[in-house]
Amino acid sequence: MSATFVGMPAFPAAARAATGDAQLRHNLRKATHTIRDRRRAVVEELDDWPRLRAAGRAVKDRVLRHLDHYLERLEEAVTAAGGRVHWAADAAEANAIVTGLVRATGEREVVKVKSMATQEIELNEALAAAGITAYETDLAELIVQLGDDRPSHILVPAIHRNRAEIREIFRRTMSEWGVPAPDDLTDDPAALAEAARRHLREKFLSAKVAVSGANFAVAETGSLVVLESEGNGRMCLTLPRTLISVVGIEKIVPTWADLEVFLQLLPRSSTGERMNPYTSVWSGVIPGDGPQEFHLVLLDNGRSATLADTVGRQALRCIRCSACLNICPVYERAGGHAYGSVYPGPIGAILTPQLRGTTTELDASLPYASSLCGACYEVCPVAIDIPEVLVHLRERVASGGGHTAERAAMAAAGWVLNDDRRLGLAQRAAGRMRGLVPRRLPGPGAAWTDTRDVPAIPAESFRDWWATRERGGGPDARGPADGRGRTEGGR
């Protein structure tokens, strides 16, 4: 059973520890820069990328506005195609449904397609508690599972590991889960992939039950779609007799024409490819071809509450491409584990607090895990304004009782800024005491000045300079002094 995020510290503490790991920073920088460079190259090939991005956003917004309608349409289509639809309000209900379905088959092992939704609900741990072993088949997920680790990236869960570390994990633990690694295994990528292939083949050929997620669910036909790079997912989707798919309710697209937009957006944004190597699509059950029993578990788990927030709901547009992680300077240095969730990086900083709430110290800290540079918004293929949602969630945390010092500071600032006379007095006082301002602030302000300089305070405020200018006095009408003997007009 792999490690979970339960008990993780708040982001500042976790990030402080992560940034002290030089090997981790090296692994992250190398991987994220490689992926972002590939993405930029293939995106620049398309003259209509802005229009594709706008189309993706429009489709997702249409789905969210009429989600009840599309969910009912999807259920009807899946049922008509021979599948069964189950509704799960939360993680506990989803885990109970899946566990019950697996038990009904009499099997005690399942193979899994890479799935963020099943990680979100910690399905593997729930199955293990019921005596059922889940085998991850995605190479990166396999590395995480064998290493009793946690995923740290949406697209590449083992991005924090290098080849030498992966070799040691395979040699140390692969035999505990099935076919062991060769004694002479090297850290050559081809050798590592071959060891994983030999290990997994036994599972593919013997498993009777598979569990998957889905990148998209097409409402008009009841079709589910999985995009992948390895082909391991397709083995899970075609060989077992029973297939159980756990899918978030926001993953719907209305029609096949809408799906076409995302089949262009997702590969370029995620792996930097023009087209993903494997696109698997299935619609219910076909006698004699593939799984003969298909179950779709539609997962809410906080999504309805997120939908009710007119600002925060845009996080539900996410197509899990990970472009925001690869461009984020905070993620690049802190890594995914610091976020304490299966959803790391900028999208995790806005999605996790909405799905789980902001009642814990960890979840309340996530909206602050950003410099608000805006790079994540620029690369998002469905134009999620992540900085806007971050600020929105910070306001929610502050108004809900978190960050007492910040709330007090904002209240004091509001008291000053809401009165013209008080503002003038505060500015003149600051100007007179500018020589006493320390380079590093005390108390709660210390953390702010650990990474920023205290702005220089001018000897004269703009309003005082303007008042003097209007009265016709003052030797220099070019602009107010900046505190260093220069004026705006002289720069």
TrEMBL record:
Ranges where the 4Fe-4S ferredoxin-type domain occurs: 315-384
This chain's source organism reads: Marinitenerispora sediminis
Q: Name one Pfam family in it.
A: LutB_C
Statement: the UniProt record of this protein carries the keyword Electron transport: yes
Write the protein's name.
Answer: (4Fe-4S)-binding protein
Read off the InterPro entries from this record. Answer: 4Fe4S_Fe-S-bd (IPR017896), 4Fe4S_Fe_S_CS (IPR017900), FTHF_cligase-like_sf (IPR024185), Helical_ferredxn (IPR009051), LUD_dom (IPR003741), LutB/LldF (IPR004452), LutB_C (IPR024569), NagB/RpiA_transferase-like (IPR037171)
Name the source's superkingdom. Bacteria
Q: Per the database record, which ranges form the Lactate utilization protein B C-terminal domain?
A: 399-470
Which SUPFAM superfamilies does this UniProt record tie to the protein?
4Fe-4S ferredoxins, NagB/RpiA/CoA transferase-like
Q: Where is this region: Disordered?
A: 463-491
Keyword set, alphabetical order: 4Fe-4S, Electron transport, Iron, Iron-sulfur, Metal-binding, Repeat, Transport
Which residue numbers delimit the LUD domain?
A: 71-285
- Record-level GO BP terms: lactate metabolic process
GO MF annotations, alphabetized: 4 iron, 4 sulfur cluster binding; metal ion binding
Matching PANTHER family, A to Z? LACTATE UTILIZATION PROTEIN B
Whether Transport counts among this entry's keywords is yes
